[in-house]
Amino acid sequence: MRTIENKICSFSGKRKIITQRSSVAENWRYGFLFGKEGERVMGEKVISAVVLVGGNYDKELLKRCLDSLSWTDEIVRVETDGISGSFSEWRNTGANKAVGNWLFYVDSDEYVTPELKNEIFLAINHKRSLALRAQPLAISAFAVPRSNILLGRQMRWGGWWPDYVVRLIKKDALIKWEGELHEQPEIRGSIGKLKNPLIHISHRSLTEMVDKTNKWSEIEAELLFKSGHPKMNVARFLSSGFREFWYRGIRKLGFLDGTVGIIEVFYQTYSRLITYAKLWEKQQSVIRI
């Protein structure tokens, strides 16, 4: 057993930093990371986890998330409630406060499996598994497959898997995160891929799904409106709904996920139509003025 110290930084609406230190005991099994008595070996890469926590976060999910990150050297917790800005700005804030050589981004409704933890250590310390040997050594970041759990089912079809997201990044290779909703990192260097998934507890109920859709569709509609999207009409409504249904249900075989898969195919079509309906509403308000 070895005792390590984790630092959790919480950012309030006024950007005040609250530092809390706690001792976490864990049995470290990775011999190439620590010496015989648990001391760090020369050349180990320090890992900072950056966790985004929204205003209406689920305490149980957040606890699972933080517990799954107890092996990291630092946890930077960025609380977004009451803070103006975008996901990119919040992720950049976390990067600026972190001290690790590597940044590992995890949201509060996600958690890390032991297999993924092990693979991360292997990857950043170049103890390369068979899956990684074909990739170049000069990798600056890794994309992680995300396993989405929707209505209690692990999704494998409908475009939900493998859902790669770039989350493990060398700090000195990160230029910035950009994009207001579907944010992406700008990185110097190449991006590799890991094989073990990050678990994402997404929609747990239809009520939760509708609430999220109402929130995110408003943001997406506003972005489309500001970008000067062409005026919505019957043809554009029909084509947007048809494209989403075709992609989820036919091209990506969403029905193979059973009842939940069929619900998701129709729900994602509905979500797309709601976004464009809100865009139409914004366009109409300008016309009236």
Automatic annotation (TrEMBL):
SUPFAM superfamilies, per database record: Nucleotide-diphospho-sugar transferases (SSF53448)
InterPro entries in the cross-refs: Nucleotide-diphossugar_trans
Domain of life: Bacteria
Listed name of the protein: Glycosyltransferase 2-like domain-containing protein
Organism: Candidatus Woesebacteria bacterium CG_4_10_14_0_2_um_filter_39_14
